[in-house]
Amino acid sequence: MVKKFYVLLLVAILALAGCQSKESKNSNENTAGSKKELKKVTLVLDWTPNTNHTGLYVAKEKGFFKEQGLDVDIIQPGDTGADQLVATGKADFGVSYQEGITQARVQGVPIVSIAAIIQHNTSGFASPIAKNIKTPKDFEGKTYGGWGSPVEKAVIDSLMKTENADVKKVDIINAGDADFFTMVKKDVDFSWIYYGWTGIEAELRGEKLNMIYLTDYSKKLDYYTPVLATNEKMVQNDPETVKAFVKAASQGYQYAIKNPDKAADILIKAVPDLNPKLVKKSQEWLADKYQDDAKQWGEQKLEVWENYANWMSDNHLLEGKFDPEKAFTNEFLPQ
Question: N or C: which end of the chain has fewer CB within 10 A?
């Protein structure tokens, strides 16, 4: 009887050990599985998708985000701007601009630039050749159509001063979000565009433009536009996610630099409403401008942030103290 009892006890112990072993195995498998779970993050664009964003769509399509453990949802800003969504934590990352971040920082908005998407400012003032606007002095007596920001008049004034021209002789109107090509066929002579998109579209339309780039007349206006941004809380509390995001984005833009045609195809696939010819030609134009003369894609320089902030201060566009060293960081770029 005693012998039978110990046999049954031994069987029970072995069975219990087996259950514990199985539970332990399942637990280990669950732990391993959890390591493979992707972290969901949100990336909000600054505007409708275009070739400024190609590297982000490439990173998603080619699995670069996934390799870094991220599941990235790319969204458009809607009525609430990207900067506001990022600053309040409603989006983890966003596409922004140095000019917007500079103004936001002096107002205490905790937004930080983490990578320059394009190394140099590719924007400028465009006009149909028939308007005969070849230099800033030719702005005199002409009508400018913009979106109603005081920055516009200050930039026009800065360029005109290089040729002793008078900004008071320019009729500046608020055209809102009116299409460039519609504007210049009516009451507007020139407007501010990114050549990499609107300028390329003009080429495809066969409409020749005169282009006056900001960087041809002022070093202080060679600011980073656009940039990738996040908020201070992400930088402080979740630096690993920021690092992973920037690394994948860097891979995406490097792919677009080396493979503009294939990268264009990825953007077209992701956003089929875009004009394929425009995307292809724009991507080809932008490919060597993402990194340009920087040591690596995304790099930002303190002097660029200082120069633009000083220009804004000189033109009474900043109401508060700006600390450029807190407005951007290179620490998350791949080493």
Answer: N
